[in-house]
Design brief:
Blueprint: H1 2-25, H2 29-46
Length: 52
């Protein structure tokens, strides 16, 4: 159970870092959505997701 909570916390931290980085690169919300969908698509094509 604790391991699952730790993984969720780590995922939130990574997600926050990604959003902060995207705020610097993409000034429009629609650009951020396109980038997120693109990463998810590529991760699916690679079979295991992308390491961030």
């Amino acid at each position: 159970m604790q391991n699952h909570i730790d993984e969720q916390h780590l995922a939130r931290e990574k997600g926050s870092k990604i959003i902060d980085s995207m705020d610097h690169e993409f000034h429009d919300a629609s650009d951020r959505v396109i980038a997120i969908v693109g990463v998810a698509y590529l991760g699916g094509k690679l079979g295991s997701g992308l390491e961030i």
